[in-house]
Write the structure tokens for this entry.
Amino acid sequence: MSLELIIGPMFAGKTSALQSIIRRHEALGIKCVVYKPLRDDRYGEDYFIYSHDKTRVSALPVTHLTQQSVNSDYANAKLIVIEEGQFFDDLYTFVVKAVEYDMKHVVVGGLDGDRFRKPFGQILQLIPLADRLTKLTSLCKLCADGTPALFTYGSTTSSETIHVGGSETYMPLCRTHYNESTLLAAGQCPKCQAGLAGSVYRPRCSTCKYDSNNALIDALNALTAEDLRGSSWIESTRPRPSERHPTMYPLPQTK
């Protein structure tokens, strides 16, 4: 019996790590059962868990974990894998029973924090019980130079903690860019936190002379044409062609 946690921000490779564990055990003939939250329908409502590169492994979509402990698949399995564990309200109760009473090996993957950097679900409650804890990081989308991304930043205006989405809504950011993006979204200067002036396309600070023009140029240059194509974040931050001044920063060309 054991408990392993694999946590981190979005796009950190958590699902890929789970898939690797599942395949290794199945190759040895070890019976596994994989659960995923029913609400996670980013890649369709089917019986698989998907990594962001669309690699998939069979899984059972469920709403409540504790109800699964009476099923034969659970009883026969030696390894229990839980994808997106932060979405399950009964995660803690189920895992404790599975590990300490039913003698199962359990691996839980999921987000340790939401887009507001607050604890997400019950995963963090399992840390004191875990045999092994792996904290993965992604790569900062705006640095685009290999800087580790610790946090998930969401471009959605929703105040709800749970807002299912993929790269069209979320991106991994380092601490510096997360704080800067959060302050800019709130209309505050990233350097002195004073109120910003200027247009929505080029906010400026009259207190410390911060000018978002250079920062936005760097961010745009870091994005590829594929990132720009159909991106709600970039579409919401750049001026329309009719609103652009000839002296404004050039936009990357897309085909």
Remarks:
- Residues 2-136 form a domain with the Rossmann fold fold (CATH 3.40.50.300).
- The radius of gyration is 21 Å.
- The longest strand covers residues 2-7.
- Residues 14-27 form the longest helix (14 residues).
